[in-house]
Design brief:
Elements: H1 4-25, H2 29-53, H3 58-87, H4 105-119, E1 126-128, H5 132-148, H6 154-157, H7 160-175, E2 179-181, H8 190-210, H9 214-229
Antiparallel strand pairs: 1-2
Helix pairs in contact: 1-2, 1-3, 2-3, 2-5, 3-4, 3-5, 3-7, 4-7, 8-9
Length: 240
């Protein structure tokens, strides 16, 4: 019975992703963003519960990737589609009614990232490239900032050049050979987890000060701290 518990939690992640898609395509982008956040919580929980119960399975691994593809691949692509639709502008000769479809580039590169992750043995203890939940939370934070900032950031977030830049940069970061630390604690000592404690502490401070506007800063902080840490890239990958 216990082996099915992590998979059930993964299915809740998947359900949240399906709901996020529904709301995104109905242009209720803030609801879609909240559901991506809830999906991320369940995505974290399924792995944690699997470790606690020692309930790993091959089907669980595959189910997790399929759920992530919906919640952190299709859903953020749909949110970016919605944001580019709100921008209502043509860019570099691309008509305004065609431009929103470029948001799904995020979905394509999320699929590439998840496929790569499944066969890359280097990513057991850390990540190579930005994880799909981190990318999704960055994109999901944008409609939440729009909804809560009183038009303060509208000119930035709804600028089509900004949205395309976010799409291109994160598409690259998803598959880049960039080593990033994982929030996995084997113990609670400062020596082994200094980078994690610093990241969590600064994240709490940023959230307290800036609320949803802090989320993009936190994702950038995660990448910068990982680069500063200079984690070596293991070489035992079938991709080499």
């Amino acid at each position: 019975m216990k082996k099915h518990i992590p998979n059930a939690i993964t299915c809740i992640n998947l359900f949240c992703g399906c709901l996020a898609l529904y709301f995104a395509f109905n242009f209720r982008l803030e609801y879609a963003a909240y559901l991506i956040g809830i999906a991320a919580i369940f995505d974290f929980m399924d792995g944690m519960i699997a470790r606690v119960l020692n309930a790993y399975s091959e089907i669980g691994k595959q189910l997790d990737s399929l759920a992530d593809m919906v919640s952190f691949g299709a859903a953020p692509g749909a949110i970016m589609f919605g944001l580019l639709s709100q921008a209502e502008a043509s860019v570099l000769g691309i008509p305004a009614d065609i431009l929103p479809f470029f948001g799904f580039v995020i979905t394509i590169f999320s699929a590439l990232r998840l496929a790569k992750f499944n066969i890359d043995t280097r990513q057991a203890e850390s990540f190579i490239g930005v994880p799909t939940p981190a990318c999704s939370m960055f994109i999901g934070s944008l409609p939440l900032i729009l909804a809560t900032s009183g038009n303060l950031y509208d000119n930035i977030i709804l600028n089509p050049y900004f949205l395309l830049a976010v799409t291109v940069i994160f598409s690259y970061l998803l598959v880049a050979e960039l080593p990033l630390f994982a929030l996995k604690f084997k113990n609670l000592t400062w020596k082994d987890n200094a980078i994690r404690f610093v990241f969590l502490g600064l994240s709490v401070i940023l959230l307290a000060l800036a609320k949803f506007a802090a989320v993009p800063l936190i994702i950038v902080l995660y990448v910068v701290l990982s680069i500063f840490k200079k984690t070596p890239v293991p070489s035992n990958s079938p991709l080499d």
